[in-house]
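Supplementary Methods. Inverse-folding protocol.

Structures were first reduced to a discrete structure-token string of length 645. This string, shown here, constituted the complete conditioning input.
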């Protein structure tokens, strides 16, 4: 909990803060955030109910600031932390040579035992060459004048598995758990006598020992394990120790020398990231893009020993360049499968083992592999066949004519006016005639236009929302589960108007279409709660859905994923989530794919249930064709009470 006024005064006196600085910190502690986070483009924002602070804390990204909150929540050196606490001036000399001042709102203001200051968090892809840490001289100068600090920090400081495990343990350190003194003493005694014992072995030795006792001991720091090694739910990989100094710390340089890679740790090999899907005599690897590869375990261990293949941190960026990614995406499935077979033959030949492939072919593949490494940093590209590139592919179009075509497309086609392709082609022909250039044919024009029409061009013609449908899929983090890693870890909450007309239970007359509020578990896809009402979406519908969830399951989900509707930003809703330590996550605006779990549920419920009932509104989709015989208002028979059962 936060410091009392007396404790705060003693803390500031110990740090020898000036009266001005003490007044600034006091205003930060008593004032709300200076702004409400809106999030970067495509980021998931939200509010985290902090047990340490006793209030909700905003975060702008669930991969950066959210991780920082969990880290500060469990850091004993952190006394208090506040989000979006104040605006500070950053004075510096611009590129023009003139001095300028920009106002900046850091992510957090953190009070530590021996210091206090602002902290700005950045994604792991931001790295400072050499030192590994970024600096902001204007922010540091301003903070130093007040006796405070200004630090730029990165999400690379945390391991994704560590954050997932802290989320898993949150129920045990954020809430009071009934103690079990006898079982706790039994577990502590055995762990002290056998440091490094796997959790599954401990549970096998003592069948009556509840696993929740181990989670309580871990949460209260009476038992220790490496939270960044594996998920706690994988009991066979979790090793327990009585003292923190006994826990072995595996550094990134040592990971490559392990005979068996740690679970959920991505691998780097041949300029790509890989994931182990199966381990045995044959190791099944899946790359971040491309066809899966199966190789003998002996070959896998040989690559590990020679340093060609190694385990990397889960927050490490992909070494694959955009050029290599594009070439792999263009390669067909058959070409990649043939390249996988060539890779196996080539690796066996390199180790001196017999192979069924001709020797000259393997030597040719090895040469192409080395050339691709020198040119692209990925030797796999040299093993792909070039069947699609066969034939005479020399350019037959006049360079000046082709350059004019690209200019016309950039000027007239990629514009908000939205001219048709035929109109742009006519403009192109007219300009060619004026300049005395031979125009390309209409078929060639449409082929060039198809390659030119990228997602950015669609955004210029129709706007970003229209371009969203053609946007490429985002590459997911290698270890973060998309839908949670257990039931009640993440739930989706949303509304929809049902395609059915209900009638009054008293008069039998049609009343209209009801609204349904669904709360769905993302991991199991089970519907946790469903609330029906004639009222449009509001905070009342949301609160009722949560009430039904508690009635049925006696608990609430740990995280709630919602859109940015006004009912999800109400004081009642956010207060309830904060009171029961439920993290609210807001999905980005105008990105419906982020809510695909709910949209799929709405579509399935409509087609498989509602469209099979009397009174459904399929006929109203075509009002000019609807007659009195198929009018859903005449065919409606369901009342709200009967339909809700």
């Amino acid at each position: 909990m936060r410091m009392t006024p007396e404790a705060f005064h003693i803390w500031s006196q110990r740090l020898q803060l000036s009266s001005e600085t003490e007044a600034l910190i006091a205003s930060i502690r008593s004032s709300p955030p200076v702004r409400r986070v809106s999030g970067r483009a495509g980021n998931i924002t939200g509010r985290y109910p902090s047990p340490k602070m006793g209030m909700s804390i905003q975060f702008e990204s669930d991969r950066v600031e959210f991780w920082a909150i969990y880290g500060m929540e469990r850091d004993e050196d952190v006394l208090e932390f506040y989000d979006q606490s104040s605006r500070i001036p950053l004075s510096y000399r611009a590129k023009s040579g003139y001095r300028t001042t920009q106002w900046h709102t850091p992510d957090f203001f953190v009070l530590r035992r021996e210091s206090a200051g602002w902290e700005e968090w950045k994604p792991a892809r931001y790295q400072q060459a050499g030192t590994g840490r970024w600096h902001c001289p204007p922010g540091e100068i301003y903070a130093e004048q007040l006796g405070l600090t200004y630090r730029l920090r990165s999400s690379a400081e945390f391991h994704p598995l560590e954050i997932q495990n802290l989320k898993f343990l949150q129920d045990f350190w954020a809430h009071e758990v009934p103690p079990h003194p006898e079982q706790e003493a039994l577990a502590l005694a055995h762990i002290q006598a056998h440091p490094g014992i796997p959790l599954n072995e401990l549970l096998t030795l003592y069948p009556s020992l509840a696993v929740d006792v181990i989670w309580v001991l871990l949460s209260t720091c009476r038992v220790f394990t490496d939270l960044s090694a594996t998920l706690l739910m994988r009991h066979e990989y979790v090793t327990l120790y009585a003292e923190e100094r006994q826990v072995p710390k595996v550094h990134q340089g040592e990971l490559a020398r392990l005979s068996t890679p740690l679970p959920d740790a991505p691998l780097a090999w041949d300029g790509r990231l890989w994931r182990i899907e199966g381990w045995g005599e044959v190791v099944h690897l899946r790359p971040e893009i491309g066809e899966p590869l199966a190789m003998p375990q002996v070959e896998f261990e040989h690559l590990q020993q020679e340093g060609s293949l190694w385990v990397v941190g889960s927050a490490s960026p992909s070494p694959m360049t955009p050029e290599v990614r594009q070439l792999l995406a263009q390669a067909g499935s058959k070409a990649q499968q043939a390249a996988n077979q060539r890779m196996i033959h080539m690796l066996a030949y390199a180790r001196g083992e017999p192979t069924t492939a001709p020797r000259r072919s393997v030597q040719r593949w090895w040469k192409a592999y080395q050339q691709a490494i020198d040119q692209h940093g990925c030797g796999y590209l040299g093993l792909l066949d070039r069947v699609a590139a066969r034939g005479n592919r020399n350019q037959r179009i006049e360079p000046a004519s082709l350059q004019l075509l690209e200019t016309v497309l950039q000027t007239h086609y990629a514009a908000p006016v939205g001219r048709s392709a035929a109109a742009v082609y006519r403009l192109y022909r007219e300009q060619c005639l004026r300049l005395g250039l031979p125009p390309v044919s209409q078929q060639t024009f449409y082929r060039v236009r198809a390659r030119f029409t990228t997602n950015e061009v669609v955004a210029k013609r129709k706007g970003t929302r229209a371009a969203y449908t053609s946007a490429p899929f985002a590459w997911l983090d290698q270890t973060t589960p998309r839908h949670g890693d257990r039931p009640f870890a993440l739930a989706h909450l949303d509304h929809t108007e049902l395609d059915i007309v209900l009638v009054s239970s008293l008069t039998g007359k049609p009343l209209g279409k009801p609204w349904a509020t669904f709360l769905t578990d993302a991991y199991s896809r089970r519907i946790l709660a469903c609330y029906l009402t004639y009222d449009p979406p509001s905070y009342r519908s949301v609160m009722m859905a949560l009430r039904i969830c508690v009635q049925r399951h006696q608990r609430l989900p740990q995280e709630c994923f919602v859109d940015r509707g006004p009912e999800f930003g109400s004081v009642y809703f956010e207060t309830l989530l904060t009171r029961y330590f439920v993290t609210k996550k807001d999905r980005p605006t105008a990105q419906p794919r982020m809510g695909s779990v709910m949209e799929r549920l709405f579509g399935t419920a409509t087609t498989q249930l509602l469209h099979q009932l009397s009174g459904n509104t399929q006929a109203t989709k075509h009002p000019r064709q609807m007659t009195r015989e198929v009018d859903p208002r005449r065919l409606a028979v369901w009342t709200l009470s009967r339909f809700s059962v």
